[in-house]
Amino acid sequence: MKNSQPTSGIELRFATEHDIDLIYFFICELANYEKLLPEVVTTPEDLKKTLFGKRVYAEVVLAYKDQKPAGFALFFHNYSTFLGKPGIYLEDLYVQPEFRGKGVGRALFSFLANLTEERDCGRLEWWVLDWNKEAIGFYEKIGAKAMDEWTVYRLTGDALANLAKGV
């Protein structure tokens, strides 16, 4: 997919290695908004290695409104055995407060939906914090459906290390 042409002053483009500091800034802004800033342990160097290194683990789309950095989306491919197709998993989407309600979030989602279809993926999915009513309202407005019957589980830290060791 090519970078999008400006519409309503919004331009979207795939990030490059030169955008590491902006990506890191947006990650920290998102973490602060989600009240999770102390959990951010990544560094710009980590991002450079995992987003643009020997093995690329995720992709980033940057949004600009009137030529000012407005937000980003970081995503990667997952896979559905039921569909027999890859999907796109949206890990993070963030729009700076001054650009909310101005079409930036919708433009990012439209870009990702187009990319999902272009890559013949079966679905586009993401998580949202249950207290983020503003985001939930937006997602429902664009036609997304909550997957309330699923519960997320996670292994990290000692539990992950112990299981890896067979403990």
SSE blueprint:
Blueprint: E1 10-14, H1 20-33, H2 44-52, E2 59-65, E3 68-80, E4 85-95, H3 104-118, E5 124-126, H4 133-141, H5 157-164
Parallel strand pairs: 4-5
Antiparallel strand pairs: 1-2, 2-3, 3-4
Helix pairs in contact: 1-2
Write a compact overview of the structure shown.
The protein has about 170 residues and is α+β, with helices and mostly antiparallel strands. It is about 35% helix and about 25% strand.
Which features characterize this protein?
5 strands, 167 residues, five-stranded mixed sheet, alpha+beta, Aminopeptidase
What number of structural domains do the residues give? 1
Estimated structural class:
alpha+beta
The CATH homologous superfamily is termed: Gcn5-related N-acetyltransferase (GNAT)
Number of strands: 5
Runs in which pLDDT lies below 50 for 5 or more consecutive residues are none
Strand content: 15-25%
Oligomer: single chain
Number of helices: 5
The CATH class is: Alpha Beta
